[in-house]
Amino acid sequence: MSYVSLLERSLATHYVPHSDLTKSYYERLLLDVRRHLPPGVEDDVEEIAEQVLSIVCSAASGTSSSAATLSDQQQSLERLLDTRLSREVRDHFLQYGKLITDYVADDKVAANGTCGLLTSSSGALGVQDLNFAGPSSSDTDSDGSSDTLRSDAEERRKVELLTGGASSSAAERKERRKKRKALMKDDQNLMQYAFAEGGGIADTVEEAEAWGASATLAAGRGASGELNDDEYDEDDALAARAVEMPRIPFEEVACNAQFLKDAVRRLFPAHDADTCNRLAQRVLNFLSEKEEDDFTLETQLTTCLGGYEDEAVMDWIGDAVQSRWSVVYGLRYAQCTTQKERHVVMDGMRQHALDDPRVEHLYQSITGKEVDPLNMEQLKQHREFAAAGGNEEAVSTLASAAPRQHVLRRVNLQACAFQDERAPHLHVRATVPQGTQRLTYETHDEILLPPSSSCSASDPLIPVATSFPGWAVPAFPGVVELNAMQSKVYDCAFHSDENMLVSAPTGAGKTNVAMMAMLRAIAAARNTATGVIDGHSLKMVYVAPMKALVQEVVRTFSTRLEPLGLTVAELSGDMAMTQQQMAATQLIVATPEKWDVVTRKSVELGVASLLKLLIIDEVHLLHNERGPVVEAIVARTMLQQQLRGEGGIRLIGLSATLPNYTDVAAFLQVNRQRGLFVFDNSYRPIPLVQAYCAIKKVKGMAQSAVMNLVAYDKVLHAVQAEEQVMIFVHSRGETEHTARCLQKRVAEERRGYYFVRPDGDSHKALLEASSGAGGAVLRRSLQKFLPDGFGIHHAGLSRDERNTVERLFADRHIKVLVCTSTLAWGVNLPANHVIIKGTRVSTAPGAVGAAERVGRAADVRASRSRRLWRDRGQGHYHHFPG
Length: 882
Fold this sequence. Notes:
Region (Disordered): 130-156, 163-182
CATH superfamily of the domain at 464-683: P-loop containing nucleotide triphosphate hydrolases
GO molecular function, one term: ATP binding
Shape: globular
Structural class: alpha/beta
InterPro entries: Brr2_helicase_PWI, DEAD/DEAH_box_helicase_dom, Hel308_SKI2-like, Helicase_ATP-bd, Helicase_C-like, P-loop_NTPase
Protein name: ATP-dependent_RNA_helicase
């Protein structure tokens, strides 16, 4: 690769100011662009600023300033920034085209051949060391032809000097030879340092390339150590760079003699053991053929395994071909039983390394030694002499006299590597189920995952009327029998005092699990003779993460426990309770922070001393920034349970998505055999169709605008089928921005009748709510959104505003609800469609929240879920664990 291409790749990517003056102007431009961007696109400021520069600089270089031209420029800026701009703001942006003088558009760079190096008006260059740039503005005459020719000639001369081109001067050849020697010496020192520090193994692709370049330079030396210009060839350098670390490590194969058989069984789980053994032996025979090249070997393996239509098989074949000798010699080494047999295998690898550079590289990475043919022949004679009955002392003397390489310490870098939990897709290979479809559009790519299969009804369902006592049946209004998940946990929840951890999909019915645990505690406080419940000694606490969920739980259990004469109260940031109110309440629904304050005062005084049952909903928040609060609550509860002895406190953990359930079960002191229940997506009441959309770049449009366009198409498709949509975003400001963009587009296309029927019941209810007729005074943005069938929901709204929006959405008056994660954690507001907008900012713990949001679509009225994935450039699909 020439220096020209390297400069093109590294310097022509983004605009870089080349003077302090233009740098200050560019910083001001970044601030102005950020000020006018919508919420949620902070990562794209530089990219959008460069597109703004392209528009304003092309306007500054033009000669026309008519009203039509200015209008076109304003429309381009508005489409790019996805917002309306006033005339003053437009003129302010156009001024940057005159102030930033060292920006060159891509088309001009390609035309001038300057490889992306930009020059300022003063002629300052971005790279001074190479003296390699295009013509400056001050030296170019009217047509620019003479200076361009001189510049091209200068570039060719510099490139020839650096890359070894022809030269007519003997002095120049000598100078070039000195520079090459210095470069070779630097590479040699770097290589020695890498082997000393890393145990002779190239850790990265860049180190492997550096090793290949160093080996090629060393091969070009003559007997005297001088570099021979005629022997050095760029093709040899490319061939040396082709040697890379095997994808299947030698250590992985050398410790498993059944490696090939296990790999074939994983690829073909339907085959029996004999068939897999025969296939593994045929694969090994093909891999061991030294005369076959990689292309022929890949063809043979594909024919043998039949992987023409199986992507997993083809990927494994590619890895096996690239790591063929690592697999062959690893299996031979694994089958050895004595040290002598292992020496024979390594000697065979060393002999093979003399003819194959890949085997040589493999041998060096394993042993840390260079391949020395003379030393190898000498040691071979020593071993033959010893096998024939020679003097072992003489053999050891001769072996010690042989020149030895320093055995370098090898380090297992993979074992030391930190598994970055924020990017699990870098370490986990994603597989899609059968029936997955991929659709390509102008604005995005879309992958449709089929719904998961439902669980088989093998176990009988528990009837409510006969399985619960008569006084407990009213706590299950409208429920004839428990579903499959609830039936499995019935015995543990209602007939024992075991601590429990239940991990089940959203909508599977965990509320009834909590209800059964409450009925167990109520039965202990109930007088069987009189049927009276001792409310003063009965204290139950339900910990929910969000205020919206707390209010939902209070409404649900107030209705269900009212026939038993029990009181339910809320303890959150919106509602406080006095000590007397707590004493008169049997079920306290609190946020983690509020209950932490109550238990922190004393574990043996007040309400906390009477606690019988503690239910923690969404217990996977242990991995959240609020996790320490939940841990403190559990630790104090455990301490109180130890102090009580027999009459302890029962802990119930509920979670919709929990990948590390065993760790959480151990933390809650749950018996894994009796109290741990984990259910997969087959227990979801409604099958879920998931669509992953990867947003593409559209020239002249901000990615936020493209994302809103795709979201509008999905929303319109849903409301045309008279279905509701929930759109989850990542900030409070983005809720209003997204709702405003959707509302504006609906008005432009005149499709409002799909969202609200004029003079219908929903339209009247929305008008009454927006006017404050229901008693709640709403903010101005809600008053504008509600009449058109749109709503927003986040923690910044007042309690009355949140209740109003939730009620209108539950009554199906609001068709589109744009909200933050406040509605993701268990709030019973299901929708037919769920859109997660902009999941690029999500982390591995945030994947749990994403699954919660998708789960909002799991209801009898809901059947589909969509995820909108946002990424730079072409779409890239990422895997969310859990």
